[in-house]
Specification:
There is one protein chain. The protein has 289 residues and is of the alpha+beta class. 12% of the residues lie in helices and 30% in strands. The protein is built from 4 helices and 17 strands. α2 crosses α4. It is elongated and about 100 Å long. Residues 220-282 form the Winged helix-turn-helix domain. InterPro entries: HTH_proteobacteria.
Length: 289
């Protein structure tokens, strides 16, 4: 007698439009059996005892797959999905759970093996291998027990490290990483790498050297000028003379710049045609305490 089991291939006798389905779960959150049919976006549920409603199809002999878990792929018929990665190989040997970078519109998550609505069960002949990496990319190397090919050797010290892509080949890349204080390069299969997405704004911040400001003596002209500009105000020679008794504002501004503050200056002309400079701080809030 035919019975439901994980990976069984079935056809619904009363709904042939569903196409062929695969049993993907023997017990979901509601205690039901889940079957993912070709013609449905969401899993179909049933219960033990309803086997007579289904035609059980012969098991498919698992072929030798050339696409291991972790492979970077693209769907030939649906390029709008973008690049994807194989997250799971079904026990039937032919169905691959692929998580793509764009939505698939199929709702399901390949039985929990990927992000909902970004996944699709597909076959190897519907996919093509891609190398998504470029020189300069930051990548994460997989853990030692997650390697896709034990015969492709590279140092175990690289496992779990982040590195930089130095050169790109067909199915591997040269990755430079630092291990035990030494920076060196290894060939790493693309299957074992994940692209680390870096916010460009954060990257610029990280690359910008931190400037340490010098503390001015409390109550000095420079101290009062900095605090005044930190309030969002701009200062001119006339204001500096009236508010702080500063006769040589340009000299005080030079000291403030040398202390690490970024000062913006704007050249202006008064009603009598006299040219003067107006100063303000670029980064409000960066004051020496």
């Amino acid at each position: 007698m035919n019975t439901f089991k994980l990976g069984a291939r079935v056809r619904h006798n009363h709904s042939p439009r569903f196409g062929v389905g695969i049993v993907t779960s023997m017990r979901n959150a509601l205690g039901h059996i889940e079957i993912q049919f070709e013609g449905r976006k969401t899993p179909w549920t049933t219960r033990p005892g309803y086997e007579h409603w289904y035609e059980f199809l012969p098991e498919v002999v698992a072929p030798t797959l050339k696409l291991p878990v972790g492979s970077h792929v693209r769907h030939k018929d649906n390029p709008q999905y973008g690049n994807g990665r194989i997250r799971f190989i079904h026990p039937n040997g032919t169905s691959l759970a692929v998580e793509f970078e764009n939505r698939t519109g199929l709702v399901h998550d390949c039985a929990g093996h990927g992000k909902a609505d970004f996944c699709r069960w597909t076959k190897a002949d519907s996919l093509e291998l891609v190398n998504p990496f470029n020189v300069g990319d930051t990548v994460l190397i997989c853990a030692l027990d997650k390697r896709s090919d034990e015969d492709f050797w590279y140092t175990p010290d690289f496992a779990g490290l982040q590195g930089t892509v130095m050169a790109v080949h067909e199915d591997c890349v040269d990755v430079q990483a630092t291990s035990h204080g030494v920076s060196w390069t290894q060939y790493i299969p693309t299957h074992d790498l994940t692209l680390v997405k870096i916010d460009p704004v954060e990257a610029v911040k990280a690359a910008t050297p931190k400037v340490k400001t010098i503390t001015f003596k409390s109550g000095s002209q420079c101290d009062r000028l900095v605090k005044y500009m930190l309030s969002g105000q701009s200062i001119t020679p006339l204001k500096a003379r009236a508010l702080f008794g500063a006769e040589r504002l340009a000299a005080r501004i030079l000291e403030i710049k040398q202390a690490g503050h970024k000062v913006k200056s704007v050249i202006k002309t008064d009603i009598n045609g006299k040219v003067y400079s107006e100063y303000s701080l670029r980064n409000v809030g960066r004051v020496a305490a």
